[in-house]
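Before we proceed, please read the two lines closing this message. Let me know whether the structure tokens fit the sequence:

…
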Amino acid sequence: MSKKRATSQDVANAAGVSRTTVSLVLNNVSGVNISDATRKRVHEAARSLGYVPNATAQALATQRARAIGLVMTRSPQHIASDTFLPQILSGLLEVVKKERFRLLIEIVDENAGERAYIDLAQAKHIDGMIILTPRTTDTGIKKLHEMNIPTVLIGEVPNCQLCSVQADDRAASKEAVKHLIDLGHHDIACILNSAAIYHNAQARLNGYRDALTEAEIPYRESLIRFADFDLESGQIAMKSLLEKENFSAVFVASDNVAMGAKTALHEASLRVPDDISLVGFDDIPWAAYSAPPLTTVHIPAQEMATKACMLLLDLIHGKELEKKRFYLDSELIIRASTRPFKQ
């Protein structure tokens, strides 16, 4: 026969206090006058009985759900192929486990109304949310600030007052393209990671243009393609470029997309880097083990997620943040997928 689960009343009886006192002590409710000796008795009784507080009761006692939401603005198909996401989850779980919070994962559809985020926050009983790669067209994101719902973005939305954590995508992309220019390449194609409604795609395109402008290389719209996060879109984008354009190098603003682009090059009997130099973005785990190893921009994904989660918990606990924009350092990792231009 299974052992009966201990209740808060059992803890109260063992400690010689009321159930209310047990709730106040175990939920660490501030502003109540309970002696250290009583607190110690309650904790010892709970420990000896193996008492585990009920999550719903905890939420009622503390007015908090002790849960945060990770909200993604991409389709399930995109998420399934995203090799960047596990690093984000690892960074978040590192914090929530330590702080004894729960992590809920939700998707906001591209056609969702502007109340979608607010409804999500209220219906799912979460204390706050982290929005991954927000879309610039999501007007509902800005309403989270108006409603005072604790929110941190991993990414950026222009003219938004919410706290955000990100890499400097524009500067990082400029450095990646400058590497190709320094190798002597002038005809450099660009495949973006996603549609322009995602701010980081536009920032990476701006970085590409900055590098060309600084080197006095004309910007050619015909060399630009927008992919859609996954490998297939990278393959399609590269095929389109090969059909219409001449270039000696390509900057692909996502390692995942770059893998698809590399497949299209292989199908066209073009070798990397002998025929086409290739630079990616993100430095996801397989990048160092591809053939050849991929030159790419390292983005500290796990560190970004950890920082975002810590900031969100500060907001949940009512702390004032000294600033709202946090940029983490990126680094260009030069491997074997690029080489000097040769006629």
